[in-house]
Design brief:
Helix 2 packs antiparallel against helix 6 (148-154). The chain has 266 residues and is α+β, with helices and mostly antiparallel strands. Helices cover 26% and strands 32% of the residues. It has a 6-stranded antiparallel beta sheet, sandwiched between helices. A 4-stranded antiparallel beta sheet has the order 9-10-11-12, with no helix packed on it. It has 2 domains: 21-175, 3-Layer(aba) Sandwich (Chemotaxis protein chec), CATH 3.40.1550.10; 198-211 and 226-266, no CATH class. The chain has 7 helices and 12 strands.
Length: 266
């Protein structure tokens, strides 16, 4: 399971307020999959509502039971049967009112119940969003109206697509099973045999100011900070990985590593 660091509500602690930290489960649903759904929702709703709408994505999360009940309270919920899992399309009461108002070009109504034509319009909006669940659930099957209690019990992962324009509404998407965490095999030396690395041996080191650098020329002696006979350093990609003694082996410059590197000459 992947966990993410989260902070709870602030509470008073003397003259200060603190927030308790803890780890919460993190969804393994790829953000790229949620982005595909969000882009599809933008195109679909912009076409249905005859307006250029902009959306933002609230990334996938795994809400706990209290959060699920709060998210689904009074919502219109469509359950989409899928081959991999079931999906949910969720429109909370405020989103329903705003979508209907935007569709008819009217102000938001305070009525709780929808008229017959408003209900038909909402059903058409939900039906247009159903194909987007293919990215989340695989091959799609039947679509049914779901109750809050059943959806709250079955939903595992949730993310939201929010309209950032004047429409100001959000469409929630949920799935019944968070994707399994993919764990790849361990790398071996054989897997890395063709990888080339830049290596260098540093056997003397010093600093040179700009004025001294400007006076460099043929025959100039440069004093280094590293004393004679000091160990050399093998750097791979700029990172020091071993130390050893520099010298000549078989007529070639070489470095003999100390015990930390296996006492090997190269």
């Amino acid at each position: 399971m992947i966990a993410a660091l989260a902070f709870g509500a602030s509470r008073a602690f003397g003259l200060r307020s603190i927030r308790d930290a803890g780890f919460v489960p993190r969804s393994t649903l790829p953000v790229s999959a949620a982005c595909l759904v969000a882009n599809g929702a933008r195109e679909t709703l912009s076409s249905l509502l005859a307006a250029e709408l902009d959306f933002e994505l609230v990334e996938p999360a795994i809400p706990g039971p209290p959060e699920r009940r709060l998210l689904l309270a009074g919502a219109t919920i469509a359950r989409v049967r899928g081959r991999l899992c079931d999906g949910f399309i969720i429109l909370r009461p405020a989103a329903v009112r705003r979508v209907i108002a935007y569709a008819f070009g009217e102000g938001e109504s305070g009525r709780e119940r929808l008229s017959q034509i408003e209900r038909a319009t909402l059903d058409r909006v939900v039906a247009a969003l159903v194909p987007l669940c293919n990215t989340l659930c695989g091959t799609l099957g039947a679509v049914v109206r779901e109750s809050e209690a059943r959806a709250a019990a079955d939903m595992a992962t949730y993310f939201e697509v929010r309209a950032t324009s004047a429409a100001d509404f959000a469409v929630g998407f949920g799935i019944t099973r968070d994707p399994a965490e993919e764990v790849g095999g361990r790398l071996t030396l054989d897997d890395l045999s063709d990888v080339e690395l830049d290596a260098a041996v540093e056997f003397a080191r010093g600093t040179l100011g700009v004025p001294a650098f400007a006076r460099l020329g043929s025959g100039v002696t440069v004093a280094l900070e590293t004393p004679l006979g000091a160990a050399g350093t093998l750097r791979v990609g700029g990172v020091a990985v071993a130390r050893g003694r520099c010298g000549i082996a078989n007529g070639r410059r070489a470095i003999a590593f100390d015990n930390h590197a296996g006492s090997t000459a190269a």
